């Protein structure tokens, strides 16, 4: 929450962000959780599944932060978001303060993957 905003104003900011997310092509579901893993708000997903995802996402975020600190050797380099992409889905995770947002999108646009052949060429071109 921004300084000087009331909880009602902050909630309306969240509602605007969620409305914009839901308008994106491929939007499937979302969940908002606190950093204790308690699901506060969710849509297009069963509560039991949202709780399961919440715990896995928070564990992933914790491990990503630890790995970033070890790899990047700078305390200023904090993980702001995580984006996991599979063939069919994309999971986007963002943390702010004591809350985490996880959004699941269907992969509606499949881009051709470059393939490397045995001669070290990508799609017939030298890699």
TrEMBL record:
Q: Which SUPFAM superfamilies match?
A: Roadblock/LC7 domain
Q: Which InterPro entries match?
A: Roadblock/LAMTOR2_dom
Q: Name one Pfam family in it.
A: Robl_LC7
Domain Roadblock/LAMTOR2 as annotated: residue spans: 14-105
Q: What is this protein called?
A: Dynein light chain
The family this protein is said to belong to: Belongs to the GAMAD family.
Species assigned in the record: Nannochloropsis gaditana
Identify the domain of life: Eukaryota
């Amino acid at each position: 929450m921004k300084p000087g905003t009331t909880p009602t104003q902050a909630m309306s900011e969240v509602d605007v962000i969620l409305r914009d997310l839901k308008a994106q092509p491929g939007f499937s579901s979302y969940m908002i959780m606190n950093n204790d893993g308690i699901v506060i708000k969710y849509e297009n997903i069963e509560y039991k599944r949202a709780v399961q995802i919440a715990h896995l996402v928070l564990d992933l975020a914790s491990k990503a932060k630890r790995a970033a600190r070890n790899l990047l050797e700078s305390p200023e380099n904090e993980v702001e978001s995580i984006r996991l992409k599979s063939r069919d889905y994309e999971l986007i995770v963002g943390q702010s303060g004591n809350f985490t947002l996880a959004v699941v999108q269907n992969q509606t646009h499949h881009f051709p993957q470059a393939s490397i052949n045995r001669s070290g060429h990508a799609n017939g071109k030298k890699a």
